[in-house]
Amino acid sequence: MKKIFALMLVIVGMLLAACQNEDAAEGAGSEESRENVNKEGFPIVEEPIELEFFTGKYEPNLDDYEETLVFDTYAEETGIDVTFDEVPFGTLTEKRNLVLASGEYPDVFYSARIPSADVVSYSQQGVFVPLNDLIEEYAPNIQAFLEKHPDAKKGLTMPDGNIYSIPSYYNPDFLPMLIGKPLWINQDWLAELDMDEPTTTDEFYDYLKAVQETDLNGNGEQDEIPFSATSTGAIRDMVKGAWGFGTRGVGNKYVDVDPETDELRFMPTEPKYKEMLEYIHQLYQEGLIDEEIFTMDDAQLNAKGAQGILGANISPNPVTVMNQDNFTGLGALEGPHGDKLYSQVKSPLIHVAAFAITSANEHPEATIRWIDHFFSEEGAAFQFMGVEGETYEVTEDGEMEYTEEITNNPDGLTMDEALTPYVTWMGGSYPGYVQEEYFKGSESMPNAIEAGEKAQPDVPEEIWNGFNYTEEELTFMQGPGADIKSFVAEQEELFINGSKSFSEWDAYVEQVKQMGLEEYMQIESAAHERYQES
After folding, report:
1. Is 113 helix (H, G, I), strand (E, B) or coil?
2. In whole angstroms, what is the distance from residue 514 CA to residue 269 CA?
3. Distance CA 176, CA 491 (A)
4. What pLDDT is recorded for position 28?
5. What is the C-alpha separation between 255 and 252, in angstroms, rounded?
6. What are the residues facing 349 on neighbouring strands?
7. CA–CA separation, 20 vs 396, rounded Å?
8. Which one-letter DSSP state was computed for residue 257?
9. Kind of pairing between the strands at 49-57 and 108-114
10. What are the φ/ψ torsions at residue 444 (nearest 5 degrees)?
């Protein structure tokens, strides 16, 4: 009898799991949860509910997102009390993967930077619920957004035809946002050195060398750092256009189109790519790149910038993150072969899965309404600007501007620091629709607009979203394909820091080929063909 009873429990458990998966597949909550939702206006729910969000955050931001002005206000308006389980972006991938593997899911993955491959894999396992019907019935602002930007819908639609996530999307006309982190140069030091703004890689090298050899901050110490960023990858993506790479932006870091053959190419094994790495290696070897480049994070970079010791940096904006207003953004640098391409341009579809509802969520209808508000004009202004009279004012021209406390903080806080008690969008990855009129972050400041104008003539004509793969293709891309990417990233760092000689380049290329490069490129070609046809 005990065995029969145990077997019955297993069967009941399987049936319950099947029902849950069926509900998840339909993306629908219970009848009770649907009846609790108001389809228009506030509050969103008749009876208050609680939700748990697994949340990626920009590390300098304060903890307790639910206590910020925007989310505290929104909880009162909507009747939805959200607890944000915040994880710094630096450890986000590891902790997100642990949660996904655990089977114990939050109601929503918010600002969690879930890659498309994981959206495909976990949606097929019933972890993420399809949103197509939910959007159509409960999210009119998101529906209008998808109709206005079919490229976004193309990037969000997985191979099974469903949409499982809400994105972070930048208006394609807002170029400074697509650049994100320009290459900034200290214009005061340029003037002191009597040098023109660099327009070539050689001129940039000459400037960095001059910074290294001159006590430009006048403190009698050799503490100036010519060039800093949060990684060598950031430097690579910024300068690779000077060797003709990145012809489709940085949506795909390994594959672009060769302008001479009009065929897909794997950039990291190309001869000119080797030259580009040799240039970065030279900068590092001669001490022109920050010696801590391989361990740098945003907070460390910003702290160094605030000391006034950087000659050049790659960051959102020195004004907002470093309190330094003496930097100007550079345009595309021309390389040794005459290539001049501003390769550091992201796809407007920045994060495919900035917001994904899981099968653990008992209130999917209310949840999709919660995020839908931020795709309206009123909601976008609220998300990015806060509350009129508290964080921003409207000028006579109808422009929204942050208050003086934020733009010129009396306690010497940077703009990002001054904003942290009020909003949470700093650092990127938030789900939402970024437009210039509602977004007054670092990318909308005059120096960023000027940087965008300098970049505009050399921006790639076509910018790719990331490709989506079938389950069969994912088996390779998450196995041998991931091994290829990891190997390439590891070897690039070794070439740059000098641990590996460039005389070993041919052996490195051969190793990549032996790891399955031919099949890798066949899959990329098939995914690219689907992408072009969709």
Report:
1. strand
2. 13
3. 31
4. 65
5. 6
6. 169
7. 54
8. E
9. parallel
10. -100, 5
- The dihedral built from the CA positions of residue 341, 343, 348 and 352, taken in this order, carries a sign that is positive
Q: Which two tokens stand for residue 104?
A: 């114990």
Task: Give Dmax (Cα) for the chain.
Answer: 92
Q: Which residues pair with 530 in a beta bridge?
A: none
Whether pLDDT at 293 is above 90: yes
DSSP summary character for residue 199 = -
Structure-token pair, residue 359: 């099968």
Question: Per-residue pLDDT averaged across 172-176, rounded?
Answer: 89
| Packed helices 201-213 and 271-285: angle between N→C axes, nearest 10 degrees | 10
Tens-digit pLDDT profile for residues 448-470 = 999 999 999 999 998 888 888 88
Q: Compute the distance between CA of residue 291 and CA of residue 39 in angstroms, rounded to an integer.
A: 55
How far is it, in rounded angstroms, from Cα 84 to Cα 64? 7
**CB distance 523 to 477 below 8 Å:** yes
Q: What's the rounded Cα separation, in Å, for the pair 373 and 383? A: 9
Phi first, then psi: what are they for 256, rounded to 5°?
-145, -165
How far is it, in rounded angstroms, from Cα 219 to Cα 207? 20
pLDDT above 90: residue 228: yes
Cα–Cα dist 274/336, whole Å: 13
Task: Write the single-letter amino acid at 75.
Answer: A
**500: CB partners within 8 A, 6+ apart:** 491, 494, 508
**DSSP class of 167:** E
Report CA torsion sign: 252, 376, 177, 114.
negative
In terms of phi and psi (left: phi > 0; alpha: psi -120 to 50; beta: otherwise), the region of 308 is left
Reported as type and span, the H/E element at residue 186 is strand 183-186
Angle formed at CA 84 by CA 78 and CA 85, multiple of 5 degrees: 160
Distances (CA, A) of 98 to 5, 92, 103, 105: 34, 10, 9, 10
Sign of CA dihedral 320, 324, 328, 334: negative
**pLDDT, position 11:** 40
Residue 486, SS3 per DSSP: helix
CA atoms within 13 A on the CB side of 8: 5
Tokens at 69, concatenated = 């002005």
Six token digits for residue 342: 């501003």
Alpha carbons 47 and 418: distance in angstroms, whole number: 35
Token duo for residue 353: 């899965």
Q: Report phi then psi at 290, rounded to 5.
A: -45, 125
Single-letter residue type at 163: I
Angle at 19 between CA 17 and CA 20, to 5 degrees: 65
- For residue 483, give every residue at least 6 positions away whose Cβ sits within 8 Å of its Cβ, in sequence order, or none: 515
Residue with the two structure tokens 């070794």: 494
